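Revision sheet: structure tokens.
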Amino acid sequence: MLARKKRLAEIEQSLNALGRQLETKAGIVGGKVLLNPYSSPHAIANIESITSDLNAFASTLQLEHIHLHVEDGPTWIEAAGKAVDDTGKALQNARQQTAHAVQDVGNAIANGAQSTGAAVAKGMQDAGNQAVHIAQDAGDAIAKGAQDAGAGIADGVQQLGKGIADGLKQLPEIKLPKFGWGKK
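Predicted:
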């Protein structure tokens, strides 16, 4: 009886360790769906099948503390939308940094010019302010262009995904053998 409990504890530890590894791998595979839109979901489905078989095995051994679960990764459309959104945010941040840098240079020039005369200082400050406005307008135009491009890409990706899904529905169903514990 003691040896059985020891074996069950070792099996439980091994199943938990294997479950953590499967969760880690599913996270890695799910994060690569943008570059691997077909193989990534299939790999996650296989990992889910393995965890299901491991849960069934644990249930057979009456190991109540084993409940392995793998989260579905993002869809390709979600990953593409996130990539476009991240790019737009990076462009917006670059615009703000550029505007601040130009304003700082304009202020520094204006401060240095004050010692030579108020008229020169005013002219330099005005030039700095104009440069800030130009940089902000350019940054706004870039950000707007990126947003518009992102929206267009997202729409195109969604239409592509729908077209692929519609096309796949028209293909005959392919039956693949199931792999698992005790199945032949």
